[in-house]
Design brief:
Layout (H helix, E strand, L loop, with lengths): L1 H15 L5 H7 L7 E2 L12 E2 L27 E8 L5 E8 L5 E9 L4 E11 L6 E8 L4 E9 L13 E13 L5 E8 L3 E4 H4 L13
Length: about 220
């Protein structure tokens, strides 16, 4: 399945990458409404332009191989524009990028100026699998005032386990990281909320429930 999806994405990318610059791709990408929650079943935005290696050379374009997020996969990844948001300022926009041919995957939130040049970035989503039955370790949401919350289930056990393989459960800890994007397009961490560690079955991490909807205790 990974090979088929990879071929389809490469074919799609070849149709829309070579003609336009990053600036033009962003101009042709419609704005998504705010606030926005990147739920597990969030559909792809359109037209979904791919970004080339030369255009993302300053970004961490890799996916994770293990639940502890300490090992990187060693294959080349595709990068696609997932969403674009208005910042409320006239000097930059906010862009969500999807990284990964199929599974596992990652999402970055980046700020680009009016010429398509990168200002700053934030790792916001980490997952394995497609929209159906997706295992999430990080999820994000953004409000109308450029405030972002990234919810992370940090693995305390099973850190070395392959992110694509089945497991029964892990001991984990939920961390909510709150960020603010300033008028210059820079991300700043405002606060971090750490919850008590608990047991997370794989069925929970692959359920329809978003990570910020958990019943963890402080």
């Amino acid at each position: 399945m990974k090979l088929i999806l990879g071929i389809l994405i490469l074919l799609f990318s070849s149709l829309n990458d070579g003609t336009f610059s990053v600036k033009e791709k962003l101009q042709r990408t419609p704005y998504a409404e705010l606030p926005f929650e990147c739920i597990r079943r969030a559909p792809w935005g359109k037209p979904g332009y791919a970004i080339t290696k030369e255009e993302y050379e300053h970004l961490p374009i890799f996916t994770y191989a293990n639940l502890g997020l300490t090992e990187r996969n060693d294959y080349d990844e595709e990068v696609t524009i997932f969403r674009k948001f208005a910042s409320g300022f006239d000097n930059y926009c906010i862009v969500a990028l999807e990284i990964g041919v199929s599974d596992p995957g990652k999402q970055l939130l980046v700020t680009d100026d009016n010429n398509g040049k990168l200002i700053d970035f934030l790792e916001a989503g980490i997952y394995d699998g497609g929209i159906e039955n997706r295992l999430c370790l990080k999820q994000w949401r953004i409000d109308t005032n450029r405030k972002i919350m990234v919810t992370w289930i940090k693995a305390l056990t099973g850190k070395e386990w392959n992110i694509t393989k089945d497991f029964s459960s892990i001991q984990g800890q939920r961390i909510d990281c709150h960020y603010q994007i300033d008028k210059n397009g820079k991300f700043y961490k405002v606060k971090e909320i750490t919850y008590q560690a608990k047991n997370y079955p794989m069925s929970y991490l692959r359920s329809d429930k978003n990570l910020w909807e958990g019943d963890e205790s402080f």
